[in-house]
Amino acid sequence: MDQILDLHPEDFDVTVEPAVTRKTLNAYLRDTGLWFPVDPGADASLCGMAATSASGTNAVRYGTMRENVINLEVVLADGTIVHTAGKGRRPRKTSAGYNLTNLFVGSEGTLGIITKTTLRLYGIPEATVSAVCSFASVQAAVDSTVQILQAGVPIARIEFLDDVMMDACNRFSSLSYPVVPTLFLEFHGSERSLEEQVNVTEEITQSNEGSDFQWARDAETRSRLWRARHDAWYAAQALRPGCKAYSTDVCVPLSRLPQIIVETKEDLMESKLTGPIAGHVGDGNFHCLMVVDPSDPDELHRVHLFTERLGSEDLELGLICPDHRPVFLGLASVPLSFPEMFFLDISSLMLVFRGLNFFFFIFLTCKQVFFPFLLPSLLKPVCAALHGKGYLHDGGLKFLKSSCLSSAIKVLLT
Ligand SMILES: Cc1cc2nc3c(=O)[nH]c(=O)nc-3n(C[C@H](O)[C@H](O)[C@H](O)COP(=O)(O)OP(=O)(O)OC[C@H]3O[C@@H](n4cnc5c(N)ncnc54)[C@H](O)[C@@H]3O)c2cc1C
After folding, report:
1. DSSP secondary-structure letter at 367?
2. Alpha helices in 290-414 (DSSP H)
3. Distance from residue 101's CA to the centre of ligand 1 (Å)
4. Do residues 230 and 312 share a domain?
5. In this prediction, what percent of the chain has a pLDDT beyond 90?
6. Which of 185, 253, 301, 375 has its CA at 20 to 30 Å from residue 333's CA atom?
7. Domain with 77 in it: what CATH number?
8. 220 Cα: distance to centroid of ligand 1 (angstroms)
C-alpha cells in the first residue's frame, strides 16, 4: 500500500497508494523535473489529503486537492471497488458524466476508503524566489494581498503572520524578522516572468507602506523560511510551555478578510487570550492558534466565548469553513459552529439523496412501465402505417407487433 505506481511524466500524472506521503512523492519525482505542489504543511498521506481535500500554502497558484485529483480507486462499505473516473483512466476533463471524483474528495473517509489516487503533476518552475515583507498594520498587509491578487500576479504562495506569530517564529526558528504583521511570498516562473511578478508586487506593497523585500533566493534559505512558516504551530505552543494549542480555521471571501482579522485581533486582546494568527491569506483563510492553559477554567471559558464569536462572525461574513471538526487537543470542549455545520452537512446530504431517490423513481418508472408497455403501444400504429405504405412486409409487422418488441427493449435497457 506504499507504492508509487504508473508515473506518466509526459502526461503529468502519477498514481499512488494510500501510504505514500507528499514528501515521499516529491523526493521520488525530483529527477523527473516534476512535482506535486499541494502542501498543507504536514507530511500527510496523499490519499488522506484527498479525503480531507487539503489545501495549503501553494493553493493560491496550484489549487487544492479538488483541482489536482484525477481519479480515485475507492473501496465502498460493502466491499465494492469504484474507480471514480473509470478504471485506468486519467482524464483532465470532468464534465463528461458525474464528477464522482469530487464527490469523494473531501468526504473524510465517510463514503469509502481511498486505495489509489491519480494526481496531476507540474513542471518544477525554472526559477523560484521567496521574499519577506513587513507592514505597519494588519490592514496594510491584507490590503496588499487583495491588491496583488486583483492585479493578476500569479503568485505561488502568500502567507500572512501577525506580530505575535512573527515573535513566536523568530524565537522558535532562530530568525530575526521585525515583530510586525508580515507577508511571506513566493514567486515561480521563468526568470523574465519572475521579474515582472516581483516588480508589480513590490509596487503594491510599497503603496501600502510595506518594507523593502528581504530575499530568500537560494534553496537553503527558502527552505529555512518556509520551514519556519510550517513550524508556526509548534512555535505558537512554545510561547507558553505547558499549555495546549487549539487551532481555529476561518475562511471568508477575500474582500472581508482585512475586517475579520482586525476584529479578531481586537477580540483576542479584549479577551486577554494568546492567539497568534497565521493564514493562507490568498485563499481568505486564516488560523488563530489559541494557546490555552487547560487547567484554567476561566481561560477555557473565554476561549469558548471567543471561538463562538469568531464562528458566528465568520458565518455572517460568508463562511466557507470554520473548523467544525472537534479537534480539541486536550481541551474539555470548544464547540465552534459545530452544530450549524453538522446540520448543514447532514441536511445537504439528505437533500442530495432525496433528489437521487426521486431521480431513480422516474428512471425506474420509465424502465418498468414506459418502455415495456407504452412504447410498444405507441409503436404499433407507426408499424401499421409503414406496413400500409409497403415499407414493412407481413412477417416484419407480425414480429414487431409481438411481445418480442417490448421484451427486446426491456432486455436492451436492463
Ligand atoms: C501542522 C499541520 C498544518 C496543517 N495545515 C493545513 C492547511 O494549511 N491547510 C489544509 O488544508 N490542511 C492543513 N492541515 C491538515 C492536513 O491537510 C490533513 O491533516 C491531511 O490532509 C490529512 O491527511 P492524513 O494522511 O494526515 O490523514 P489522517 O489525519 O490520517 O486522516 C484525516 C481524515 O481523512 C480520512 N482518511 C485518511 N486516509 C484516508 C483514505 N485512504 N481513504 C479515505 N479516508 C481517509 C480519515 O478517516 C480522516 O477522516 C494541517 C495539518 C497539520 C498537522
Report:
1. I
2. 297-316, 338-365, 375-388, 394-401, 404-413
3. 18
4. yes
5. 52
6. 253
7. 3.30.465.10
8. 27
